[in-house]
Specification:
- The complex is a heterodimer of chains A (about 300) and B (about 500).
- Chain A is mostly helical and about 300 residues long.
- Chain A has one domain.
- Chain A has 14 helices and two strands.
- Chain A has a two-stranded antiparallel ribbon.
- In chain A, α2 runs parallel beside α4.
- The longest helix of chain A is centred in the N-terminal third of the chain and has 29 residues.
- Chain A is globular and about 65 Å long.
- With about 500 residues, chain B is an alpha/beta fold.
- In chain B, the strands form four sheets. In chain B, strands 6-7-8-3-9-10 form a six-stranded mixed β-sheet, with helices on both faces.
- In chain B, β11 and β12 form a beta hairpin.
- In chain B, α14 runs parallel beside α15.
- Chain B is globular, with a radius of gyration of 25 Å.
- Classes of the chains: A mainly alpha (about 300), B alpha/beta (about 500).
- The interface between A and B is medium-sized, with 19 and 18 residues.
Chain lengths: ~300, ~500
């Protein structure tokens, strides 16, 4: 047995590494969705925002040569999508879920249309921090190559939790999300708060997209997203609208997503495709396990159209 | 004015008109600084309108408001707050998922961008020290009981520095024990200085137990008041209800028939889930109108819901014409039971469907012979709707316009037309004339009387005592979820009815 063959130990290591690598877009999209939903609105269009962010980030990184410019461009594009969603929803008799689905299809469609010339070119990748410098096991070293955006996302989860608890802006978002009447009585403008919460949520989803095209998998193509934007909505629900729980849920989801490739790497090939379904099976299982037919979901913002 | 001196408020000649309707007519009341003042009146007497004028929600047509010793003009609630006026509403205005502390702090006008919870916690603890009661501030408001929420509403007003509090029926969602506790504390704070309270109520017991002075409104006018210690319940009831004469406006032909509706020992839980509705016996015979009087919130709404099958009951039996009755569509049709609930646009209509479709609700799925039909007969539906709209004088641009576009009186007429068509053996009505103009009121009452005269058993639940006295053959009074009193109309004594309505036999 040489130093490179670690046998079955490769599975937990690969899952651990995969959790960090795969979870980053989930962290950003679910944090963005968490912020939007806390203000009392659902943005189902984040899938479209994610794909458009991936395209915009890749294109700008390719033209400027700077991956960070790409991330900034993706965030900006995401914000524009968020503003569009927020503005449409502030019109009378407009349903946020319908607008979200329309924007999801619009975002992916226009990203494919504008992104055609960028399938071939190679854009610079985002840098990673080699936290595995101390080990000679290549698998572990690979697993510990952590992208900067993951660190940013993890910190952001805690910052957002603090924001909801201890800042005026955070409390205002919660008031608006829980009771439009109470917000009006306080002299707040619920539509304005929701508009900017949706915009900020869109920007975060755009960053999640940039991570996809600029780091992992690290290229732009039409199959870049496998529904991360939609899954993030489910993550927010079972994270009970708590940003820190969103981080753990994203990590769990990322780890489950890495199960298939990890088993493949140690030679388990039977039922291989089944393991790719693991994250979705896990989502369904967790949603069923944590739901209750008799009680309203605890922690749900009162103004959310799905929980009303 | 020092920080601790209580504030007095006075209205002078306050008049409020909504179009031709006079909601307040030259009302002058004086709330002395540091007093606990009660504002009594029946529903629609103008109590809410008066306090909304004081708080700046309405702009009175004429009249002045004096706060302290200066005349002030209050354009919006913010201006009222600036003068130290605050209001605790009947419904809760707290944000449910925020904790008590968060609710208090976010309502302050000067919230810092970053909230230092350690410092705020100390400040709140210091503030709570000065209060006679405490509420857990670190749990989300939706986990508090109704009594705790109401206390927190009160704390919020005090925390925000209000010195003149208006309480709008503060005990309507509380149990009697919670109500006593809350009002006792409020009383204590007016006695120990710093606070003046104006409480809207229609519970005499609370007035005598806690208030110093009382003002009574009736039909938008100030009709009397004074020191509570100098007034008896009978005096207050007389002021509130007024001089009523028993007028027999509609012709009656008396042919009392068999018992149609019979309730025995029905037990149910009320809307708040805290109180029990308990009806020992209630019979309605064919050819009579049984009026159920009572101050709102004493179980009449629940009685209507039980009869309409909207509220489950735990025990007891309801029979219609000797058969057990569970208010299903089949049974209602077989026993010829019809309903006219209050707010019929919401409770008895599909607001966006057309007038013709709404009128057809009772029989659209039947052919003429009582057999179910698959294809609707739109022609017949429209023809019937056209006839009924003409016969009941429903004013609508077209029978195809949505029923929500009609005025309240016309919705009421349309629903009444639907409910009174065909054979009707039992008619259950709740507040049929609420918010309608005089001509509509007269017409709808005449229709109800005509139904009675043709042999229908009518149960009339109403908060308008005039209506009950005008229409009923027998009067029941509901109080605290029970039937507290029963009298035939011939020997009805208004004072007696008023006393039972107020919960004092």
């Amino acid at each position: 047995m040489n130093g490179f063959d670690i046998g079955w130990w490769g599975v937990p290591i690969a899952i651990f590494g995969g959790a960090i690598r795969v979870s980053t877009p989930f962290i950003f999209v679910s944090l963005g969705e968490c912020l939007t939903e806390r203000s009392g609105r659902i943005n189902l269009g984040l899938e479209g925002t994610l794909v458009f962010g991936a395209m915009a980030g890749y294109a700008v990184a390719f033209h400027t040569g700077s991956p960070w410019a790409g991330v900034a461009a993706a965030a900006f594009a995401g914000m524009v999508f968020g503003l569009l969603h927020g503005w449409l929803c502030s019109l009378p008799k407009v349903n946020d879920i319908a607008v979200g689905i329309a924007l999801m299809l619009f975002g992916t469609g226009i990203a494919f249309f504008l992104g055609k010339p960028y399938i071939q070119p190679v854009a610079p990748d985002l840098p990673a921090i080699p936290l595995g410098w101390w080990t000679d096991i290549p698998q572990l070293e690979a697993a510990l190559r952590v992208n900067v955006l993951f660190v940013v996302g993890a910190i952001l989860a805690f910052v957002m939790a603090w924001m909801f608890k201890a800042t005026r802006i955070g409390l205002i978002v919660r008031v608006v999300g829980d009771s439009t009447d109470a917000a009006r009585a306080m002299g707040l403008d619920p539509n304005w708060v929701r508009l900017w919460s949706t915009a900020a949520g869109g920007a975060l989803a755009g960053i999640g997209g940039a991570y996809l095209s600029l780091y992992y998998p690290g290229s732009w193509n039409e199959g870049i997203s496998s529904g991360q934007g939609l899954m993030a909505v489910a993550l927010v629900i079972f994270a009970r609208w708590n940003p820190i729980n969103c981080l753990w849920a994203a990590l769990l989801f990322g780890g489950a997503g890495a199960l298939g490739p990890a088993l493949q790497s140690v030679g388990v090939s039977e039922g291989y495709y089944l393991f790719f379904a693991a994250p979705y099976v896990l989502t369904l299982g967790l949603l069923v396990a944590t739901s209750s037919p008799t009680q309203a979901i605890s922690g749900a913002p009162g103004e959310l159209s799905i929980t009303k | 004015m020092s920080a601790l001196a209580p504030v007095g408020v006075e209205t002078v000649g306050m008049t409020m008109k909504f179009g031709a309707f006079v909601a307040l007519d030259n009302v002058s009341i004086q709330v002395r600084p540091g007093s606990f003042h009660a504002l009594l009146g029946e529903n629609g007497a103008g109590k809410s309108t008066l306090v909304k004028c004081m708080m700046g929600f309405y702009h009175p047509t004429s009249g002045q408001l004096i706060v302290g010793d200066r005349e002030v003009s209050i354009d919006d609630p913010r201006a009222a707050h600036a003068h130290g006026l605050g209001m605790v509403y009947q419904h809760f205005t707290l944000v449910p998922s925020l904790t008590g502390a968060e609710n208090l702090v976010i309502n302050r006008p000067d919230v810092p961008p970053v909230i230092d919870w350690a410092a705020e916690g100390k400040a709140l603890a210091a503030f709570m020290e000065t209060m006679p009661f405490s509420v857990p501030l670190d749990v989300p408001v939706n986990r508090l009981s109704a009594g705790e929420k109401q206390k927190l509403e009160l704390l919020k007003q005090l925390y925000l520095g209000r010195k003149f509090l208006i309480l709008d029926e503060p005990t309507s969602v509380l149990t009697p024990a919670e109500a006593d506790e809350l009002l006792g504390m409020v009383r204590e704070m007016t006695v120990s200085g710093g606070l003046t309270v104006l409480m809207i109520t229609h519970k005499f017991r609370e007035v005598t137990a806690y208030a110093d002075e009382v003002s009574v409104l009736r039909r938008g006018r100030y009709v009397g008041g004074g020191k509570v210690s100098e007034l008896s319940h009978a005096d207050m009831a007389a002021l509130m209800i007024g001089e009523k004469t028993l007028s027999q406006k509609a012709a009656r032909n008396d042919a009392l028939g068999n018992v149609v509706l019979s309730l025995r020992d029905v037990q149910a839980v009320d809307r708040s889930g805290l109180k029990q509705i308990s009806l020992e016996a209630l019979d309605v015979r064919s050819g009579e109108i049984v009026g159920v009087a009572g101050v709102s919130g004493n179980g009449q709404a629940e009685l209507m819901e039980i009869l309409a099958g909207q509220r489950p009951y735990q025990a007891g039996a309801i029979q219609v014409k000797g058969q057990a009755y569970d208010a299903s569509r089949t049974q209602a049709r077989a026993a010829h039971v019809r309903y006219l609930p209050e707010e019929p646009l919401h409770n008895a209509c599909a607001p966006r469907m057309s007038v013709a479709q709404n009128i057809a609700f009772r029989d659209f799925d039947e052919d003429g012979q009582g057999k179910p039909r698959f294809w609707l007969d739109n022609g017949a539906m429209r023809a019937k709707a056209r006839d009924l709209v003409a016969a009941y004088n429903v004013k609508t641009t077209s029978i195809d316009s949505p029923i929500a576009a009609l005025s309240g009186g016309n919705v009421q007429r349309a629903v009444l037309a639907r409910e009174l068509t065909g054979q009707v053996d039992l008619l259950v009505i709740s507040n049929p004339c609420f918010g309608l103009d005089f001509s509509a009121v007269a017409e709808i009452r005449a229709r109800i009387m005509a139904a009675r005269n043709s042999g229908t058993a009518v149960l009339l639940i109403s908060e308008d005592l005039d209506e009950i006295l005008e229409l009923s053959d027998r009067v029941l009074v509901m109080s605290e979820g029970r039937i507290a009193f029963e009298t035939p109309i011939g020997t009805a004594d208004i004072g007696e009815i008023g006393k039972h309505m107020a919960g004092h036999a």
